[in-house]
Amino acid sequence: METEALFAEIDAALDSHEALRAERDAALAEVARLREALRPFADYAEGADPTLSDDVAVAYRSHTGPGFTHREQLTFGDLRRARAALAPFTGGNPS
Fold this sequence. Notes:
The protein has a two-stranded antiparallel ribbon with strand order 1-2. By secondary structure, the protein is of the alpha+beta class. It has helices spanning 3-46, 76-90, and strands at 57-65, 68-75. The model has no long low-confidence stretch (mean pLDDT 88). The chain is 62% helix and 18% strand.
C-alpha cells in the first residue's frame, strides 16, 4: 500500500473516531438531561405512602370538545417508574 493511501485511511479512521466520540458525548448529555427531568417525579415517589396503589392519580386533566372528553392522569405508578428508571444511576437512591 502506498504511503499516501495509508495516510488517507488513517485520516478517515480518525475522522470516524471523532464523529463517534461526538455522538457518544451527545448521547451522554441527553441521558443527563432526561435524568434531571425525571428527578422531581422520583423524589415525589420517594416520599409517597408505599401502600398507595400504582393507579392512584397524583394529578389529572381533562380535555372536552364537541362530543368528547379526554382525561389524562399522572399516577403513583408513573412516579415509581421514574424512580426505578433512575435507580441504576444512583445506586438505588434517586435523590
